[in-house]
Structures are given as C-alpha cells and as structure tokens.
Amino acid sequence: MSSPLVGAWPPFLAASGFCSLVSPELAWLHLLSDLAIGLSYLSIPAVLLVVLLRRRDLAYPWLVGLFALFIVACGLTHLMHAWTLFSPAPVLDTLLKAITAAISVTVAVTLWPVLPRLLALRSPAALEREVMERRAAEERLGTFLANLAEAVFVVRVHPDGRLQIESVNPAFERMFSVPGEGLAGAAPETALPPPLAELALPRWRKVAEQGAPMEYEITADLPSGRLTWQTVLVPLRGADGRVERLLGSARDVTATRRLQAGLVQSARLATVGTMCAGLAHEASQPLNTASLWLRRARAAARGLPEAERAAFARAAAVVEDQLRRAGDLVARIRSLAGAEPEAAGRFDAKEPVAAAFRLAASEAAAEGITMTLRAADGPLPVQGSAGRLEQAMMNLLANARDAVIERRRNQPDAPASVEVALAQQSGSVVVEVRDSGVGIPEAVADAIFDPFFTTKDPGRGIGLGLPFAASAARAMGGRLEAWNRPGGGANFRLELPLADAGAVPAGAGAVPA
Ligand code: ADP
C-alpha cells in the first residue's frame, strides 16, 4: 500500500507540466517546503516588528525594518512558487521576483557600508562587563568616601532656590553629630544642628546663586564641642547651565587652629614671661629693702612723743599697705612667668572649682547675679597645683561678674547669670564659665590673654587675670579658650587632661609652656 505522498502525483498537478519534470514525492516535498519557508519568512518579520515596536532604543531600527521587508519579500516568492503549482501566473511570479530582487540588492548594498558600525556595536557580554566594571568602580568610590576623614556632602538646588540634602558620607555624620538616616532628602534648615545651619546656609545659597566655587572656614559650638572646619563648595551645573547641585567637602581644622593659636600665644608669652621674670626680680629687691627700713623706722619711732608716734603709725600703715600691694603684684608676675615653685600633685578638679565658686557666689549674690554650678558625677582627677587652679577659677569668675555688671549698667533688664559647668569629655576635664555679660569685643579678642591687657577702668583691672589662668592651664597640660555666646555674653573654656588618661606632661605644675 502506498502513501498519498509516495508514488502518486498530487491531484492538482496531474494535469500540469510539473509532473513531467519531477517525481511525485519530490513534487510534494517541493510544495510543502515552499509553504513552510513562505510562512516562516512571514513569521520572522512579525517578530522583528514586535521587537521594533517594543524596543525603541534599538541601534539602526531602519536596518531591522529593511531586513524585515527583505524577509517578507523572500517569503512571498516562496508562497508564489507554491501557488504556481496550482495555477501558473508567470507575470505575477516574475514581478514579485523582480521586486524581491530589488529589495535583496538594496539590503545587500546597504549592509556592507554599515558593517563596520555594526561590528563596533558593543555586544551584550561587553556591555555587561562594562556595567560590572562601573559597579566595581562605584563600590571602590563608595568605600573611599565612607572611610574618608573629610566630610563630603551633595546638596540639590531646586529651580526655586530651595536646598535639599542629597547625600552625606559617614565622616559628615561624625563631624557634625547628625544621624545619617533621615538626612538624605531633608531640608538643611531643619536637619542640621542650628549653629551649623545658621553659619553654613548663607554660604551655600551664595554659591547656588553666583555659581562660583567658594572656600570658607567656620567655628561653631556643636553637640560634639567647639569645632572649626574648612569647607570647599563647588557648584555643579546641569545641561542648561543652571546650578543643580553643590558638592562640598569639609575638613576639621580645630586641632590645627588651636595649635597655631597656642604657638602664637606661647611665643608672645615667652618674650613677655622673660621680661616679667626680670622685672619681678628687679622689683623685689627695692621692695624688700623698703620693708626692712619700714620695720626699722617703726622701731625707732617708739621713742617719739605720743601725737607724733600716732601720726607716724598712720603713715607707716599706708606705706605698708602699698608695699604689700606691690609685693602681691610681684608675686603674681613671678607665678605668671613660672618663676614661683608650685606643689604639683593629683587632685579632684571639682574641689578647687567648687571652692572658687563658693567664694564668688556669695559676692555675686550681693550684686543680684545668679550663679549655678553643674558638675558631672564622680571625681575628675587632674595633675597640677590645686591652689593655682582655684586662683585661675577666681579670676574667670571675677571677670564674668564684672562683665555682667557692665552690661547691666546699660541694660538694666538684661539677664544676670553666671553658669559653671564641670564635665569629663573623652580624655579631658572641661570647666566652662558662661556669663550673660557684655561679651568680648571683637576688636580685642586676640589680646585678652596678653599680660597687662585690660579694658577695665584704671584701678579696677591690671590685665593679669586671664594670662594667669591661661598659664595655670598650660602648666597642667591644658588650655584656656574664649568665645562669645550666640545669645550674648562670653564663654570661657578651661580644658585639662584627665590624670587617668595618662596625658600629664612631665613637670606639669611647675613651668608654663
Ligand atoms: P582684668 O580683669 O584685670 O582686665 P584679665 O586678664 O582678667 O584682666 O582680662 C583681660 C580683659 O579681657 C578684660 O579687661 C576684658 O576686656 C576681657 N574679659 C575677660 N573676661 C571677660 C568676660 N567674661 N566677658 C567679657 N570680657 C572679658
């Protein structure tokens, strides 16, 4: 038994001339192959059309379209071939073939010049490799920024001038004591600590408006302490030339600035200290001689008549008082210059601070000034001279009182308070004296630690209180700093190394730096 495909002509071919050329099996195969090729050729462009419609980002879409047209034309010639088995249509067949030939030649001619550009297109594997490399580079940059000691931040500038924090690195969070989460996308006015926002934002706005890079230095009291930082702010423009972002990097220069100020101060004091030591030495000789002769004169006056003896005693008391004042001054100058030997030891800083506070508080109460003392729990051990620290505190508290009184003279309703805060901060004991007084005039801020500098009336100030306090702090391995408080008044900060932290310099308490 034979299959319909094997050994028999298809019925519609029996009468055509086709069967005279091929065997029936080949004729079936020919017909079915043409149909299969034709239909497949129509299906492939359909797929290409879907790709063209869905992937608008394709390179050379016109080439894909031309290729689809070529495949359609080829498919139609095959279907035409199948059709001519049923009914020969030589004119249509030839026309179709001619059109297909034209399209084929066009595609062939077009493809060759495009070939180099096609070869230059990156393959998916190359693109993937590039993406991976970029990702790795981004990760490297991310790790670098995360470990950078400098604070880096990006701020978005909206067209209406509004600023928005886009991202910050961990150093930014550490330096300015702000939690990282919630910062991205936030308005800087509300997200940053007020002192930082108040000082930095006007500069950020200026760079956004003017479009020029800016470098600035700011000092402010942040939750982590008093900080000085240097910032470089660069505007980043978009395609339309508008400043779209600000890229900033900030470096903590607190330690450097302190060191520089300390060096300048030390250099000044070294000169003044030598002068003072010489002066004190020279002055002590005549003072001692004058005291000796006063004692002798008193002894000789015993033989005078009563009235003259009384007059002499009054005059001698005045001279003695003046000699004592001069002697006190010489002693203070000697201790300022480090010429006085000091008893150095380990003691609780709270004790001399509290003793000075008690003395000052009773005087201040009489003036209607409120004084408060806040101290951390537990002892705060430091190394040096307790007596010298107490004297330094007395000087600071007396100055605070004077500043408050001076302010009240012009503004009777101004607040009258002095706060003393004693705390431990990492390896240091920090004593702060904050007053609501007149504040330190900007013009003299650099001079207040100089010996004999005073803005007080003659007879009220001699300008040795702060140099003495600063010298006491240095002798204990610490420092004294001062600045004005935002709301008015001054803030003096005495920082001493914690004795337990092992940062006590050799010879502490004896000789100032
Ligand atoms: P004196 O008190 O004898 O003037 P100081 O060395 O103690 O000497 O102070 C020097 C100067 O520093 C003062 O004259 C004053 O101008 C300024 N000063 C010190 N403490 C304060 C303060 N708490 N507020 C404002 N100014 C101050």
TrEMBL record:
The record's section on InterPro entries has:
ETR1_N, HATPase_C_sf, HATPase_dom, His_kinase_dom, PAS, PAS-assoc_C, PAS-like_dom_sf, PAS_4
Cite the Histidine kinase domain residue spans from the record: 278-500
SUPFAM superfamilies in the record: ATPase domain of HSP90 chaperone/DNA topoisomerase II/histidine kinase, PYP-like sensor domain (PAS domain)
Which CDD domains does this chain map to? PAS
Domain PAC, chain residue ranges per copy: 212-265
Tell me a GO biological process for this protein. phosphorelay signal transduction system
Q: A GO molecular function for this record?
A: ATP binding
Q: Which UniProt keywords apply?
A: ATP-binding, Kinase, Membrane, Nucleotide-binding, Transferase, Transmembrane, Transmembrane helix, Two-component regulatory system
The EC designation for this entry is 2.7.13.3
Q: Which residue ranges does UniProt annotate as crossing the membrane?
A: 35-53, 60-83, 95-115
SMART domains associated with the record: HATPase_c
Reaction catalysed by this enzyme: ATP + protein L-histidine = ADP + protein N-phospho-L-histidine
Q: Which PANTHER family match?
A: C4-DICARBOXYLATE TRANSPORT SENSOR PROTEIN DCTB (PTHR43065:SF46), SENSOR HISTIDINE KINASE (PTHR43065)
Q: Which NCBIfam families has this protein been placed in?
A: sensory_box
Q: By what name is this protein known?
A: histidine kinase
